[in-house]
Structures are given as structure tokens and as C-alpha cells.
Amino acid sequence: MKFVCSQSDFSNNLSLVSRAVPTRPTHPILANVLMIADATKQKISLMAFDLSLGIETSFDANISEEGQTTLPAKLLNDIVSRLPEGEISLTSEKIKDDQTGLLYLKSASGKFQIKTISADEFPPLPTIENDEFIELPILTITEGLRGVLFASSSDELKQVLTGVHLKGTADNLEFAATDGHRLSVVEAIISSKTSRHEEDRIVKVKNLDEFSVTIPARALRELERIIHNNSDSKVVQLQIDDVQVIFYLGKQKLTIRKLDGDYPKYHMLIPQQFEHIISLDRKTFLNSLERVAVLTSQKNNLVKCIFNHKKQMILLSVETQDLGSAEESIEAKITGKSGDIAFNIKYLIDGLKALSTKEIKMQLNEGNKPVIFNPLGGLKMTYLVMPVQIVK
Amino acid sequence: MKFVCSQSDFSNNLSLVSRAVPTRPTHPILANVLMIADATKQKISLMAFDLSLGIETSFDANISEEGQTTLPAKLLNDIVSRLPEGEISLTSEKIKDDQTGLLYLKSASGKFQIKTISADEFPPLPTIENDEFIELPILTITEGLRGVLFASSSDELKQVLTGVHLKGTADNLEFAATDGHRLSVVEAIISSKTSRHEEDRIVKVKNLDEFSVTIPARALRELERIIHNNSDSKVVQLQIDDVQVIFYLGKQKLTIRKLDGDYPKYHMLIPQQFEHIISLDRKTFLNSLERVAVLTSQKNNLVKCIFNHKKQMILLSVETQDLGSAEESIEAKITGKSGDIAFNIKYLIDGLKALSTKEIKMQLNEGNKPVIFNPLGGLKMTYLVMPVQIVK
């Protein structure tokens, strides 16, 4: 393999795929990035894969000799990102009949020799046989992820709950995530459905009706990041089979292993009728919660909300034996009787950050029934939190 | 105690003294900040002390009842920094005859109750009996610290080496720090020596000739930070006795316990004659070192420098068995024969970052004699590094 490319192209694409390199690889080869030089297309492909998430990207290069090899991702990234801008030339060679070899990297300022491992050792990225694609507007994906990702569980033992559930209806795509204590659901409207040629694949738009998949939150955070750094693309294409889902975004491709198992029937959890409806300013509520949260401890992170119909106020109060106590009052439009309810303050803060409108609506019933929060206007989002019983 | 003050005054001063609060306090009271309300001066003083470093500051407030108490620094800081701008009112009261009490903090948005511990429990900050002050220009201090602080040892067992040594001569103040492997010395010129009234103390300028003290690097980093955030003051005043040194900077006061023990006679280490003199561009050298450093490992952080008199070039090379190797060439003006030398690359990088001029001079002798680096022009600074023997 022998090619010349620009330092910035190499560095940007390398740092992009490096996100799929595991920090503690179970096998040495997984710490490496696969590099393929295609002389016909005059393109370099880079690929990293942690057996659950694979990221692929490609960029133009001047290739005089094709080939493929794998290189330690972190080391290569550390070198290439520090090189001065300009052309760099790379040559790889095998040592004897060994599975290892050497990469020679030359820039204006110096030269580097890096140990390589044969591309044969690199686990093949799963492919999807069918040629049906779903095309989604970037905005649909970003709004959906922004509204639900935070609510997924970070506990690996909770399996499907570590993912985000996507479900299609006639012209909606519903995103949902829950960790068992709170649930966030976003209904994203899909405005445009067109089939188009992109790169060298024909996009056949599949009916969203049949679409239902649970995708690991970690992989979706990488998708979110790639979308964020990729402002040209307006659409994402998806390909799906029983095991994998593949996202195509311009020159980047994310191959993600789906999460097995049935996703909870979360719609059943959302109450349809409420005794109390409260609307209030989201930012004011959030700031007050963040201040009183200072007085909560790891053992006791309870905030009590007393809503006073007569005064049209909510009183937030927090008390921790060893530290002290805090109270804040905020104005609210309250219909229904006065009452009180308590929450894990972290769940409230997380949800209020994800709800993006100025005003929000909070709906609840007596007793320890689920409480729901919705934005007033804008996105169709429902955030459900289980209250905590107040010991009286 | 009862007073009203501005949120921003309280928050800024609190975060300033909080730097002296230990992260793992040996006694609960050390996690607290001492607050004194002086009705006569209409000033609030805040103080934190970890038994080695004490930081004191004061600000104006509307005091209706004087008194003193101590409060958990982190908790108070977390609350006050989150409060909206505007006036806050504070009232403290004792609970029974107990050593604990409560502070009531009220802002526009809410109220907080925080547990206090009696001010009697707070260890008194050491004072200095003599009334002799040394006045130093801020620039002298900042240049000196910037040039040497990085070279002090972070190993608490190395005692005096964890500090910076300050030594006065007729019109110089010399800063020195060493960790046993490298040494940095800055001779800061003191241009102005004037005696003046400041606040309520008379500044008698003491002769710098007798001045010699070793001060913990950690405390000096706080001094550096306070100077940086305090752009009004042009001078720092110093008071010193056998045990303590006190820095006065506007409304702030740093009380620091000196490091005991004789500081090494470092001047003896600096060679006066050299066989090789090399001058080169600092930034180019630094960038090259940072790139080849990627190929060093924790076990082997050696960089070999081959200086070629004929080509007027330095070749840097690094090799680590498992990773690979790197080479960079840089132009240099070399007098004396060609040769080679090896260093711990971290020591070179640290020193080159602290030397602030565009061009630098590197002087060395055959064998494993100390190598020194000086800026060309600007500050009078000497950075000495012990080379590492090359196994041939």
C-alpha cells in the first residue's frame, strides 16, 4: 500500500472512526483501525469496530499502490493530529510472512514507523443483504435523539433499556427511552419521503409502518456527534435486518448491532386523564431546582413540590439532615386543587433540560401515579416521571 | 450576625478563598470557611486555611449585626454561585449552647438554611510580629513563577524540592525550582523600590539582600491564580518570619507555611563552559518533540538528539519496541563538533514551554554533563536538564 493524502483529511476521518475503538479492547486487533487503499476509486477507507458499533468513512487520496492493513488507532491519531498541515505520504510493508508489518509515514517535518497488524485479523463488519432503505430527514433524527437519549439506562444489565426504541407509524417516527424510573417519548413528524440516488446505491423507501427497532444509546450518541459535525447532509439512510441496523450519512457509515428482546409497552404507562394541570416557565423551574439540588445528598435526592392553587405558586423544598435545607417559590398556572408531590430531583432536572420550549405543562393525579411533562408548542414530546412517596 | 451584600461580591470572594479548602480535610472544620462580619468597617472577611496555606479576602456589605461563624465551603459556594444576581441577606444564629448553628440565606428566588460550626473551632491563622514588608512588582513575581514552578517536585516526600526557592541579591530576586532531574532558575530584576502606605499598614521596604525562603509550589500556584484574576494591583507585599510568609495583594492575603530545610546549592550544578553551543527556534523544536513523544512509552520516554555540525541540523529520534519509531529533523545553528545526547523527553517539553522567547540557546559538553537552555533575549532564565546515558 502506498498513497499520498492531506494531513487534515486523514486526521479528521481518523478521529471520526476512532470513536468506535473500545477503550479496553477485549482483543488487541480491536484497538486498531482498518485502512484500505482503493486504487480504482482513489479513495482511502477507514474503519473501526468494537463488535457492537462499527464506523466507516472514506476520503480522497493519491493512491499508487493499493492494499490494506490495520494500525493502532490511538497512536496513529496522536501522531497525525500533531503533524503540520500539508501532504503526508504513507507506505506499508509486511515483515516476512508474519501477520505484522510496518507503516512508514512521512511528513514535511519527519518520518514515523508504526507497527501494523494484518487486515486479515480484523473482524469483518456485518453487512445487510436486502436493498431496502429508509430515508429520514436529519432534523427528525436529531430532535428525536435530543428528546429521549438522556432517559435511557446506563446500567448494562438492563439490556433493552440501555437503548432507544424507534417505531414507525404512517407518517411519524416515535423515539422512546426509559430506565424504569422515567420515560421520554418523542413523536417526530416525517415531512419528506422521496427516493433518490446517493453515492452508488439506489434508495428504495420502505414503509415506515413495519419499522420497529431498539438501538444502543451509546451508538446513537456517536450518530448524533457525526450528524453534528456533518452539516452538509440533510438526510440519513437506514438499512435494517434481524440483527443489524446501518446508518448512511454522506461518506460515513455506522453499523450497529440491535438490542435483542421486547421493548416495554410504554404507552400503557402514560395516564390519559389528570386531576391537576400546571403550566410554568421551564427555565425558572430548572434554575430553582438546580439551586435547591445543592442541598440534596446521594442518599436523599428528594425534592418536594407543593402546588398552591390559591397563590398560583409552586414551593420547592429540599432538606438533608447533615447539610441544611432550601426553599424556592415559582409562579405557575395551576388548575385543580392544591397538593404536593415529591420527585428524585435528578430526574426532574434531566427532563427539564431536554424539554426545549419556554413554557411547559405538568400533569398529575393524586397518589403516586406517574406525572407527565410536555412542552407547550414545538415538538411533540412526553416526559413521564414516577413520583416518590412522601413519608408524612 | 446579619448582613446584606451583592451576590456577585459574595460569590467571587467565596470561590477565591475556597482554593485553600483541602479536598480531603483531616478535620471537619477545615472543610469550612470562616466568615467575619465587621460592623465598624462594614466589611465581610472570608478565610480558608488548610494548615499550610491560608487565603483571606474581604468585601463591602451592609452589616446590621456583627459576628462570626464557619460554613461548609463547597456547599455554600455551590449555592451562592447559582443564585441570581442581586442582593442576598444572611443571618446566623446559634442553636442552644451548642458549637453548631444555622445560617439563613435569602435571595429574590428563595431561602436556604445551612448548618454552621462555631468560629471558635476554626484554627487561628498565623500572624507575623515584625512590621517589615518587602514590596515586589507583580511582573517580577509572575515572570519568576512562570519560569520555574513547573520544575518543582510533586512528590511530597521530597520536602524542600516541592517548593520554589526565592533568594534576594542587591537588585535581583532569584527564583529556583528543581525536582532532582532538572532545575529552572530565573533572575528577575526589581526595577522600582518605593515605600508606600497601603490599606492601614505602612510598608517599610526591607533589604532584599537578606531574603531567602522556600515556599510550597502549591501555594504559589494559588498566588499566581489570584494575581491573574486581580489585574488592578501592580505590586505584591511580602512579610516574612522564621515559619511563615504572608503575601498581600489588594484585599487578598495569603499566609503560607515555609518549607523547612536547606535548599540545594544549585548554582554549583550549572556548568560555566561548554563544548557545543546550539541555537534554534523554540516552537519548531517543541512541536517536533511533541510529535515524536507519541512514540515514547511510560517505561521508555527517551529522545535521542543527534546534532550534525556539517548539515546544521538536529535529528530527533525515538523508538519503542512495541509501538514503532519516529524521526524529525530541525534546523539549528551549531558551533562545536557533531555529537549526540539523550533526554527524558518530558523534561525537554516542560522546559521549552516555559522558555518564552522565539529563539533559544542550548549548551552542552561531552559525556553525561548537565545541559542548559537559555532564552535568547528577554528574561534571564536558565533551564538545566540531566541527560540520560545512551547505551551503545
From TrEMBL, chains A, B:
<comment type="similarity">
    <text>Belongs to the beta sliding clamp family.</text>
</comment>
<keyword id="KW-0963">Cytoplasm</keyword>
<protein>
    <recommendedName>
        <fullName>Beta sliding clamp</fullName>
    </recommendedName>
</protein>
<keyword id="KW-0808">Transferase</keyword>
<dbReference type="InterPro" id="IPR046938">
    <property type="entry name" value="DNA_clamp_sf"/>
</dbReference>
<dbReference type="Pfam" id="PF02767">
    <property type="entry name" value="DNA_pol3_beta_2"/>
</dbReference>
<comment type="function">
    <text>Confers DNA tethering and processivity to DNA polymerases and other proteins. Acts as a clamp, forming a ring around DNA (a reaction catalyzed by the clamp-loading complex) which diffuses in an ATP-independent manner freely and bidirectionally along dsDNA. Initially characterized for its ability to contact the catalytic subunit of DNA polymerase III (Pol III), a complex, multichain enzyme responsible for most of the replicative synthesis in bacteria; Pol III exhibits 3'-5' exonuclease proofreading activity.</text>
</comment>
<dbReference type="InterPro" id="IPR022634">
    <property type="entry name" value="DNA_polIII_beta_N"/>
</dbReference>
<keyword id="KW-0239">DNA-directed DNA polymerase</keyword>
<feature type="domain" description="DNA polymerase III beta sliding clamp N-terminal">
    <location>
        <begin position="1"/>
        <end position="126"/>
    </location>
</feature>
<keyword id="KW-0235">DNA replication</keyword>
<dbReference type="InterPro" id="IPR001001">
    <property type="entry name" value="DNA_polIII_beta"/>
</dbReference>
<keyword id="KW-0238">DNA-binding</keyword>
<dbReference type="Pfam" id="PF00712">
    <property type="entry name" value="DNA_pol3_beta"/>
</dbReference>
<feature type="domain" description="DNA polymerase III beta sliding clamp C-terminal">
    <location>
        <begin position="269"/>
        <end position="388"/>
    </location>
</feature>
<dbReference type="InterPro" id="IPR022635">
    <property type="entry name" value="DNA_polIII_beta_C"/>
</dbReference>
<dbReference type="Pfam" id="PF02768">
    <property type="entry name" value="DNA_pol3_beta_3"/>
</dbReference>
<comment type="subunit">
    <text>Forms a ring-shaped head-to-tail homodimer around DNA.</text>
</comment>
<keyword id="KW-0548">Nucleotidyltransferase</keyword>
<dbReference type="InterPro" id="IPR022637">
    <property type="entry name" value="DNA_polIII_beta_cen"/>
</dbReference>
<feature type="domain" description="DNA polymerase III beta sliding clamp central">
    <location>
        <begin position="144"/>
        <end position="265"/>
    </location>
</feature>
